[in-house]
């Protein structure tokens, strides 16, 4: 018998996910509830609360959006959502923005991690056989929060249902999926090519099997590359996980080197930015600002994903690989910035 979803309105605000008889893969529609994007560059968030009595595994994501409407969508896992409203304004750097219609809050109040990301008409993502994102009872992810960054103000009366169809199962998956997001802050001088770089040594005693990566910048990014660095006495070995032109569809692409990543290995990413404008561009949330992101999706076998969900540095001019505490050598300077 196929599983079915029963939605219960709880506490007047949340939809409580209850899955019944779900041996099979089922679908949950996580869509914006007829929102009205009433201004340009609006970020809106909507939550679902996962039933705390059951564990579920998300095995795939089917986006339901177009790049004409949505600049990007992010799916956050949270232990606590940023707000108890059914919709709120959730621009990362708009804390001073007072919205006339929606309250303002972060996507998550606690336990923030990225589960899925979409932009530029990227197609569906199906996780490998036996791999799933654990949510609910045995997971720190008690809520999923969908964030949509709308490009433009909608006409009065026109509402939106962008979102993601989630493929899920109650069947235990032996391999749990996780995402670590590498990124930077920083500034790009006018008429200059700049490298935005980050690196983190893996401290946790886990074996990661990387399988997908995604890059994200706004208009100035030309190449984003991600590496795992094995630091040996004979010198650093930089192994390319993936690199992409971020102006192509920003989907999850297969990892080039799927060798396991172990404790002591270093994850590193670089965004090469070409600022053709006549003013400095900073990292920020609007389309006039920039972003430098490399998402690494991996699975762990009979283990839980990394506690570490983010690897960020202040970026240029404060941080470069050449000044990293890892004391890198053999930096693949040319390879990291060319396609
Ligand atoms: C999303 O899906 C719903 C139906 O489930 C559809 O009515 C709507 O137009 C879709 N939105 C977009 C942006 O594709
Ligand atoms: C949401 O409601 C719960 C229960 O009333 C409360 O404990 C929590 O602080 C609220 N969260 C926010 C973000 O206001
Ligand atoms: C930066 O952009 C300019 C203008 O499009 C182009 O001429 C130049 O070759 C680019 N530089 C790099 C390093 O991509």
From TrEMBL:
Coarse class of the protein's main subcellular location: secreted
Molecular functions per Gene Ontology: copper ion binding; peptidylglycine monooxygenase activity
Keyword Secreted annotated: yes
Gene3D superfamilies hit by this protein: 2.60.120.230, Copper type II, ascorbate-dependent monooxygenase, N-terminal domain
Annotated catalysed reactions: a [peptide]-C-terminal glycine + 2 L-ascorbate + O2 = a [peptide]-C-terminal (2S)-2-hydroxyglycine + 2 monodehydro-L-ascorbate radical + H2O
Binding residues for Cu(2+): 71-72, 149, 216, 218, 291
Compartments, record wording: Secreted
Signal peptide: 1-22
GO CC, one annotated term: membrane
Cofactor: Cu(2+)
Cofactor details (free text): Binds 2 Cu(2+) ions per subunit.
EC number per UniProt: 1.14.17.3
Keyword set, alphabetical order: Copper, Disulfide bond, Glycoprotein, Metal-binding, Monooxygenase, Oxidoreductase, Secreted, Signal
The UniProt record lists the keyword Nucleus: no
InterPro entries: Cu2_ascorb_mOase-like_C, Cu2_ascorb_mOase_CS-2, Cu2_ascorb_mOase_N, Cu2_ascorb_mOase_N_sf, Cu2_monoox_C, PHM/PAL, PHM/PNGase_F_dom_sf
Sequence ranges assigned to domain Copper type II ascorbate-dependent monooxygenase N-terminal in this UniProt record: 28-152
GO biological process: peptide metabolic process
Enzyme's top EC category: oxidoreductase
Pfam families recorded: Cu2_monoox_C, Cu2_monooxygen
Intrachain S-S bonds: 45-90, 78-108, 200-311, 271-292
Domain Copper type II ascorbate-dependent monooxygenase C-terminal: 176-322
Recorded family membership: Belongs to the copper type II ascorbate-dependent monooxygenase family.
PANTHER family (UniProt xref): PEPTIDYL-GLYCINE ALPHA-AMIDATING MONOOXYGENASE
Protein name listed in UniProt: peptidylglycine monooxygenase
Organism name: Manduca sexta (Tobacco hawkmoth)
């Amino acid at each position: 018998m196929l599983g079915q979803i029963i939605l219960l309105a709880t506490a007047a605000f949340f939809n409580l996910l209850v899955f019944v008889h779900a041996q099979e893969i089922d679908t949950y529609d996580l869509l914006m509830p007829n929102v009205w994007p009433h201004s340009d560059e609006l970020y809106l968030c909507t939550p679902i609360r996962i039933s705390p009595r059951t564990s579920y595994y998300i095995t795939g994501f089917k986006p339901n959006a177009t790049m004409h409407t949505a600049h990007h969508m992010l799916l956050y896992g949270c232990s606590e959502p940023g707000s108890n409203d059914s919709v709120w304004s959730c621009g990362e750097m708009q804390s001073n923005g007072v919205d006339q219609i929606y309250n303002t809050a972060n996507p998550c109040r606690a336990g923030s991690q990225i589960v899925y990301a979409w932009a530029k008409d990227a197609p569906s993502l199906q996780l490998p056989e036996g791999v799933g994102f654990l949510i609910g009872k045995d997971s720190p992810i008690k809520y999923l929060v969908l964030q949509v960054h709308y490009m433009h103000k909608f006409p009065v009366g026109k509402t939106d249902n962008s979102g993601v169809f989630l493929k899920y199962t109650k069947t235990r998956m032996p391999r749990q999926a996780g995402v670590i997001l590498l990124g930077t802050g920083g500034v790009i001088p006018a008429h200059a090519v700049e490298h935005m770089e980050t690196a983190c040594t893996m401290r946790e005693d886990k074996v990661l099997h990387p399988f997908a990566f995604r890059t994200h910048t706004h208009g100035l990014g030309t190449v984003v590359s991600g590496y795992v660095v094995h630091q040996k006495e004979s010198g650093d070995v930089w192994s390319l996980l993936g690199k992409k032109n971020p102006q192509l569809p920003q989907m999850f692409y297969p990892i080039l080197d799927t060798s396991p990543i172990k404790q002591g290995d270093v994850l590193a990413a670089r965004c090469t930015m070409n600022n053709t404008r006549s003013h400095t561009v900073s990292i920020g949330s609007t389309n006039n600002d920039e972003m430098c992101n490399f998402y690494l999706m991996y699975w762990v076998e009979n283990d839980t994903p990394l506690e570490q969900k983010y690897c960020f540095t202040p970026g240029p001019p404060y941080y470069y690989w050449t000044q990293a505490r890892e004391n890198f050598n053999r930096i693949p300077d040319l390879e990291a910035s060319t396609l």
